[in-house]
Every structure is written in C-alpha cells, then in structure tokens.
Amino acid sequence: MTTKARTYQLPPTPLIPNSPFPLLHYPGLVRDLVTRPNFKTADIFDLFAQNGWQSQWVARYGPDIQSHYHSTTHECMAVISGEGATIRFGVADAPDWKRGMLGIGERGGGEEGGVDIRAALGDVFIIPAGVSHKTFSPAPETKELAFHQPEDVEAGHAADDISPESEARHREFFGQVPVEGHFMMMGAYPYGGVWDFKIGGEHREKEETVWKVPKPQKDPVLGLSDEGLCGLWK
Questions:
Q1: 168 Cβ neighbours under 8 A, 6+ residues apart
Q2: How far is CA 194 from CA 27, 71, 172, 180, in A?
Q3: Can you list the positions of beta strands (E) in the chain?
C-alpha cells in the first residue's frame, strides 16, 4: 500500500497560520480497501488505530462547509465513498459566509491564494495543524451535511479515555454509519489529539503556538515509511 504523495507548502495568510509542514495528498491510497465488496468503516478505523491515530468522525458532505483549521492537532481525512469533491486548503472564507449560501459548483469568496484539490475515492489527506480546509461541490450532489461522531467525541472527551473498551465502542459506532455512495470522508487524529474549529484571525501574531504541535510518531496509513509523513515532515 504505497503511493507517491503530492505535497503542498502553504505559507501563512493574514488570517490562516498554515504550517511549516507540507499538506500531504495521497491519491487513491486506500481505494482498493474502500472498493472491496464487503468494505466497512471498521477497516479504515483499524488501519488508523494500528498507526496511532484515532478515528473521530464520518461526514457525508453537502454543498459547502466553512473554511476552518485546527490549532491543537494534525488531522487525517480519507475519502471512503462518492465520486469526488473539491477541497480548498490554505485560505479563509469571506466574513459573511453562511451555511447554504453556495450552490453546487460555486466556489464563493474569501482570501486569495491557497490550493483547490479535487478529491476522489480512496484519497487520503494529512493536514498539518494550522492548515485551513473547506470541502464543497460533492458528487453525487448532496443537499445537506451529515456529521457522525460518538458521544464522547462530540463532547470533547475523546482523549480522556482511549482504552480498548472505549475504542471498541467507537468502532461499533462507525460500523453503523451507512456508506451509500454519497461523498463521504472519515477523519482521524493522533491519539490524545483534541481538535478545535478556527475560522481565521484567531492566531494572528501567535502562529508559532500552532506550528509547535508535535509531529505524530507514525503516518496514519503508511506507518513508519519514509514515503509518509515520517519522511516528508522534517
């Protein structure tokens, strides 16, 4: 299970800290896994877990979500269903952004720059703390976001209990989320990581507090391989 990563170095903007670490995009890295006839979300859950990453959500995407970044942890997102969607990295939305204001195919306003990547089934993204991201224009078209989280994750307590019993409950929870062909991603964080939701401007002149989030010990998919973050995040 190897692929050459596409790397993107995203400099700070007036509103987004971004990161000295590059954004990593592995096209189709887990495509063989998610296209198996008997594929279950537990397969991705187990893959992340064996590399020290905790699955915390599954999302079915609507037309648009707000651009945001996490200041406290790195993030992995894997495309587990659907034809594709566009993800914009590295810039903030316009201040007047509201959910539902954009239609399918519309990009909306916001800061100049960043990079738009068309995500496809089986793609994996590793997003450094501080790098903003925004998913829009999913295919097939979906009108609403559906966000699935275990109760302790939603309450912000995922890092408090990472016992085998707790993780078994999480695994069972995700196994009950239907994967029906809409554009869906599964998100994970290094064990102990608790994510926040920042939309831009919160860390102006304090960017180094975000840049100092520790590097994970393993890549969520490629483990200790130099083809993953262990070799690419220096």
A1: none
A2: 26, 10, 21, 28
A3: 6-8, 23-26, 53-60, 75-81, 84-89, 115-120, 124-127, 133-139, 146-148, 184-190
Report pTM: 0.94
What structural domains does the chain harbor?
A: 6-226 (2.60.120.10)
Which single residue is written with the structure tokens 């196994």?
175
Dihedral angle over CA of 218, 89, 65, 191, nearest 10: 10
β-strand partners of 148: 58
Among 105, 90, 89, residue whose Cα is nearest residue 16:
90
Rounded Cα–Cα distance for residues 19 and 84 (Å):
26
CA-wise closest residue to 19 among 59, 75, 64? 75
Q: How far is it, in rounded angstroms, from Cα 56 to Cα 75?
A: 10
Per-residue model confidence as pLDDT tens digits over 91-123: 999 888 877 655 555 566 789 999 999 999 999
